[in-house]
Amino acid sequence: MRHGTKPSGFSLVEVVVALGLCTFCLTVLLALLPTGIDAKKESVELTQAASLAAEVVADMQAEIDYLRAAQSNPSPPSEGVANVSRFGFARQNASNSPSLLNPASSFFIGPGGQHKTSVDRSIGSASQYRVDVGFDPSTNNNSINATAVRIVISWPAQALGTTGSWPTDLDNSFELMTYLDFSL
């Protein structure tokens, strides 16, 4: 005769409930996976756009600094030094653009970092980003001697309108407003 011994282990009902809970939790986690992947992709694109905007501003500043140094040094620069600008914005007179209503320049960046003035739709080298730059010399006053520069980086480049006007209805974009001293 057996007294007070209980069988050890889980009952079938307990196992089924535990498996049901695990299945529910795993389904919820798998449903969140695409959201996390999309957020990561957007974060990478925004980081690249911010880096590109910083590169454009640095390029403008380097060109301005070069032109100032060339003015103060009457001897001609050495061979190859004159091309310090990758994009060539500072060479354009910032006062040519009367307001920030329309960009002064638009160009497109490809996967290897090459820039072009038109959308490249060829396979393998399609443009990724559209970069629009505009100047507002009306903000230049004697106290700070600076010109407003608006930079809008948007992607995908192929989905946007024509150049010569700011892109509208942007889902994916990065905008930077800064001030630079273009006086030489």
Structure description:
There is one protein chain. This protein has 184 residues and is α+β, with helices and mostly antiparallel strands. Helices cover 33% and strands 17% of the residues. It contains 1 helix and 5 strands. A 5-stranded antiparallel beta sheet has the order 2-1-3-4-5, covered by helices on one side. The protein is elongated, with a radius of gyration of 28 Å.
Succession of helices and strands? HEEEEE
Identify low-pLDDT runs: 93-99
The largest pleated sheet is described as:
5 strands, antiparallel
Structural class of the secondary structure composition? alpha+beta
Features:
184 residues; 1 helix; alpha+beta; elongated; five-stranded antiparallel beta sheet
Q: What's the quick description here?
A:
The protein has 1 helix and 5 strands, in the order H-E-E-E-E-E. It has one helix at 12-72, and strands at 105-109, 115-116, 129-136, 147-154, 173-180. The chain is elongated, with a radius of gyration of 28 Å.
List the helices and strands and how they pair.
Elements: H1 12-72, E1 105-109, E2 115-116, E3 129-136, E4 147-154, E5 173-180
Antiparallel strand pairs: 1-2, 1-3, 3-4, 4-5
